[in-house]
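Exercise 7 asks you to align residues with tokens for two separate proteins.
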Amino acid sequence: METSPVPKPHLPPHRTPLLVPASRKSKAPTTPPRPGEAERGARPPDRPGRMAPSTFPALLLAAAAAVMLLLLPPGAEAVWLELPPSGTKCVSEEIQPNVVVLADYAIMYESHPTSHPTVAVKVTSPYGNTVHHNENATTGQFAFTTTEAGNYLACFWIDSAEKGSGTSLNLDWKIGIAAKDWDTIAKKEKIEGVELELRKLEAAVESIHHNLLYLKAREAEMRTVSEKTNSRVAWFSILSLGVCIVVSVLQLWHLQGFFRKKKLI
């Protein structure tokens, strides 16, 4: 049996790749960047609407001033009083101790041009002490520093023979930092501008701090009174329950003896 030889596959001859020098390598054509691509990686410049860092202290100062004004209780109050021919008109204000009070009062003749009466003024403390008294006055002023906490009462009445149909009185009541003359303080200490505003804010902070301490003391006082009241109510309830039990036992003992005398039991 004869076998035919298997033909070998035809292989291409081996070719060595040509080495091209580095200097002869072709360079890819460079295209200029587009207008939007060059600026994409760079840091954008500051926009006109962006807030500069130097404006933050001023904004913080303004915010602090607004908060202080909101938290600060009203220190100045103008009151218009219509005084009757007979009788007394009074105004009161709850003030803490160690607070400066300044008030100006004046009769307004424009509302009653035909009569020109005079008034009497009396200001009393919460415990009834007189801190200001004036008679036959058309204008006046009183100033004092409180030593007691509570309602200070200012009463006005017409004390002249010419009463007419009454009169009107303007009362400008100032307490705390509102009673300070900041213009005089600024001239005396030679301060102005931001320093003066900071001084006002400092006074406002001190006033708020004293107000919070006063409220804290009042809260502690009310809590003590509430605890004492609850304790007294609890003991009164226990005593009432004990009395009821004793009375019930006595009633039972009395009824038992009564029924035994009657030979019902």
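Second protein for Exercise 7:
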Amino acid sequence: MEGVEVDGGDAVQSPLAKWKNEVSRTFLYYLDRSAPYTFRRWLGTLAAASIYILRVYYGPGFYVISYGVGTYILNLLIGFLSPKEDPELEALDGASLPPKDNDEFRPFVRQLPEFLFWYATTKAFIVAFLMTFCSIFDVPVFWPILLCYWIFLLVVLTMRRQITHMIRYKYDPLRKKKYSGSKSDRSSSCLMGTNVRTDPGIFSRVANVPSFVLKNSCKYYYSC
């Protein structure tokens, strides 16, 4: 029970619900504090991935879990490399990207922000590591076939399609674009929601985290 109704319509939270809310607030507080430290965050993710790899290597099995984690991270990577607004759909709607020599060049906005990409990747490795302690997930498979299928039919074909899309519409997701407008234009572009990271509900929808985590999103999660 989350709470008990009392006179006046007020709800009194149980001790368990209070403890749960306190833990959640503490976790979100430190999660928000970690936003500016990109390199350190990814070092932690690398450590979590190394622990999982060692677990699978020295305890042979759980290949289906590894396949699922690899496919999930590949999908996250595609979202990280893809623009928020697909130029293909914009072309169908009659809209077009501004020319390269225009005074106001629109910056590249990712479909999946870096912070959400890191958070989901780290959580995937942690959950996968915990799943290796349940024998029910150790499904016997011939892992070389599974590995070849993942590399050639998923990674190669997916990345080939993504690179072709990047070349066709001439955008580079790994390079920061310089914004040639004025400083006030840059601030307004953030506040008007040009970037997905300024959307207060993005974390709630993607990572199931309340929106106040993104209170400093324009400062930390994206360089406007």
